[in-house]
Amino acid sequence: MKTRLIPALGAEGAAAIGRALFDDLWTRMRTLEDAKIVLAVTERDPEFEQRATSVIAAEIWPQGDGDLGERMERALRGGLERADAAIVVGSDLPGLPLRVFAQAREALHDHDAVLGPAEDGGFYLIGATRCPDGLLAGMRWSRGDTREWTLERLRSRGLSVKEIEGWFDIDTPQDLWRLEEKIARGEISTPPVAAALRAIRSARSTPLRPISVIIPMLNEEARIGRRLEELTRLEGIGEVIVVDGGSSDRSVAIARSFANVSVIESKRGRARQMNAGAAAANGEVLLFLHADVSLPCDAAARIDQALDQKGAIAGAFRTWTVADFGGRRLGWVLHIADLRSRYTSLPYGDQAIFVDAAVFREVGGFPDQPLMEDLEFSRRLKRRGKIIRVPASVIVSGRRFIERPIYYAAAMNIFPLLYRMGVPAVRFARFYRDSR
Q: What domains are defined for the chain?
């Protein structure tokens, strides 16, 4: 079961996606020629094994004990006892093209090992012609640099390695969201997963509180389209309002191409733009979203649950910062910025702050100041009631950190401290140059 999908889909929904991913991959693999297919399972499940062997003539092996690396190493070694080369591949790879197996086989003709890089920084396929003891034991898993660590480990054991075409797997609700986009655009065909997603969406209920999403925008043509596509498929959203602060690129035209999105204009400045959006909103809850921040697919339900808590008037998500467009080389460095979102009681704007609309009006909205408007707004909210930290993450672009890492670290840590000590926000403005 895809356990990290349970908070968004529930246990039954996560299990349904897991079954659909299995059916999609293994149905494709039945067409592979000259390959012995083995299904390595964590625990014996007669019903599942019957389904698996009915799809393809797969042999069932127990994975055994140990961490992921030890179990994969055991599978590799078992395969090498029966053949000159063995390939291990995950079962959560929607639409995986069979050409990657041909690429892997060809790579193993003149290399000791082959690796299929995954877009999350790990790998989806590993193969070898020999497997020294401890090859994958004690590895670093589920990290942005897992692939790099694995390459280093293989080479340190004397294996020559070749990488093949990359692909992506499904671990989180955000991965599912991206898959839905690819299916809708016709980039991937995966009938079992598409059917499971349709069934899950039709069975889910809509949260009670209507939500207005307000996006302040300035020259965001590279991102606003994708953000609005995400929001049109998000359950529980009553309306989306984009507030433009004078964009000189195609941002406004892109936003207006969405029939269910309202686009209004305002003087430049996030505080002014967000206040203008709030004045035009009709929702019971106002959600302020930056154009480079992606919500989890169950955001509306989580907001509803957060505001159900006694004394709650507002809330915000944790952050998970990534490099734009699949870049992963900065890895853990980008996630230093995320520590703040897990401990602070005063959320920042990139945490997708949401608030009861009536309370927003009572506290006077965002203060009209050049910087720290989100921090000052959070201080106002905290004096009024409880701010809930939602135990789920929004995906945040690391573009500002990448462009100016030293400044960004200061902006996230030192500037707020000085502001709380009484230094006016206008004093920081001359040091600030937005990298949008």
A: 3-163 (3.90.550.10), 207-429 (3.90.550.10)
